[in-house]
Amino acid sequence: MQAEATQAKSQAEQSPIFLQNKKLLGKNEYVVPDNVLMAFKSVVDTSGLLGKQTIPEGVTLHANFLESKFLRMTFRGKERKFLSKLKKLGYSQQEAEHHVSVFVAGNIIFSHSGTMAPDFELGKLAHERLHMRIHNLPKEQANVLNEARDAILAADSRMLEKQTDEIGLVLKKEKNGELTAWQAYEEKNKLSESHPMILKENSKTSSIPGFFEMTVRTRPIEFYTYMLMGRLDPSVEQYVKEHYPKSYAIYDSLRSSIMSEIEEAKKK
Ligand SMILES: [Zn+2]
Questions:
Q1: Over 60: is that where the pLDDT of 1 sits?
Q2: For residue 152, which of 195, 197, 209 has the smallest C-alpha distance?
Q3: How many angstroms does the Cα of residue 190 sit away from the middle of ligand 1?
Q4: Rounded mean pLDDT of 209-213?
Q5: Which of 66, 69, 91, 150 has the CA that lies 20 to 30 A from 9?
Q6: Distance in Å, CA 216 to ligand 1 centroid
Q7: Cα(246) to centroid(ligand 1), Å
């Protein structure tokens, strides 16, 4: 077991891409071996926090998830559980304590796999930083951002409902024999063209059609992060810019400061 943990560490450390990406990390950003993040995930067990991936690639800690707020008796109980899990994985007391110590509110933690991912810069680092920056915004500014996002998603879902109803009508007509299969097909095409959805994914970056759209609909917290990553169609960003200029200004200033920090770190 000891050997396994040590080996995993050295393998990552030998990877040039890992070392290169690790240099981009700033204050409050840490890398831990995959099994450490997995152990954390199993201890805190907060659904949705780390997604459903088997190996989480990164996590933004908005709170001290290892602290139990409710039961004074078991205060730090999760921390102890985490520590013992790490020791069972073969980490020494010192290593385990070090790993546990980075899992506190305000930190962003990446796994080795996440750090070696081909889209680390935009997909992991910039993405998690944006989550953190939005979380740390003064309440008033955060509200401006979130209200725009919620209004867009609400308008989008109304549109989706309307479209579904209209398509239902076409299908009914086809069933009744009022429309031929071909006519129904053409009607459906016309409908999707006449009611363009606001929320549209960037089909160039999507390998499963509709996946990014669905993710944003079910996890609105990913609206701005997906925009930053280029997962949404450029028309979405344009829409925010035109209809919610205040929100756009906040988003854009966060985005540009995050990107220029990354560019600066690359020069080092
Ligand atoms: Zn995210």
A1: no
A2: 197
A3: 34
A4: 87
A5: 66
A6: 10
A7: 22
CA of 128 to the centre of ligand 1 (A): 6
User: Distance from the CA of 114 to the center of ligand 1, in angstroms?
Assistant: 13
Which comes out higher in pLDDT, residue 253 or 80? 253
Q: How far is the CA of 249 from the centre of ligand 1 (A)?
A: 20
The answer, yes or no, to whether residue 199 has pLDDT greater than 70, is: yes
pLDDT at 13 over 60: yes
Distance of CA 164 to the CA centre of its chain: 28
pLDDT of residue 156: 87
Residue 51 CA, ligand 1 centroid: distance in Å: 9
